[in-house]
Amino acid sequence: MQRSLSFCAVALIALAGCASAPQVPADSAADLDSNNVARLDAALAGDWRSAENRARDRYRHPRETLAFFGVRPEQTVIEVTPGSGAWYAEVLAPYLRDNGRYIAAMVDPASVAEGRGRDYQTSQRDGLQARFDAAPMQFDRARMVAFDPTAPRFGPSNSADVVLTFRNVHNWRMSGQAEAMFKGFYDVLRPGGVLGVVEHRAKADVPADDRSGYVGTSQVIALAQAAGFRVDGSSEVNANPKDTRDHPNGVWMLPPSNRHDAADAAKYTDIGESDRMTLRFVKP
Fold it and tell me: 129 vs 27, which has greater pLDDT?
């Protein structure tokens, strides 16, 4: 596995000055042998995956992304807020079922004030549980853990091999919860454990209350380093050069949200999903 960091990575660590992540080709950084790749391919090909989720494989590159993070089927893996759509859960839970453990970390609705926020978190939790219940052959060993995002605890200290978060950091920054979340990731991971982050990539640093949905790469790295992680690599597997990252309604104008005028459908379909950083961190 390629572990050395590029010059840009060094600059990010020292100066937080690079606008994009240090590039490490995903194929050279993969930590999966042929047997594990075959298991991952079988999970991706499973007929339990929804048609809507399958259609996004070309944008989310799950095979390359999980290989880059080095997710192996015997590991304990925590996915943070997978949501009711169960996009990665549909792949990870079956992949880990026989020899590992898949844990979905969901916001505890009771930790959120009554109203729309609590209703939303309840619907996400219940929707994911319904998805698990509908396919017991794949999800019978998956479990959930509830957490308070203001003081998150995802499990016993040093108990997880991998923590994964997909397109969540912008929400935590807007709500002032990012530092606590990264500290929670650090606590639950064993020494040598991996934190894998995929996030919408801004052109440069953005304010904490920015509403575009994009985040600066150096800002994500700073959050991880402040929690104690070290940068272990970066991949451009989820990059999208067609994404100009300057949409009036932010990332939500792009697929899959498509919050744009009907007349602009062809334009945003051509762009595809957002330009995303893919970062791997390790707990020393």
Answer: 129
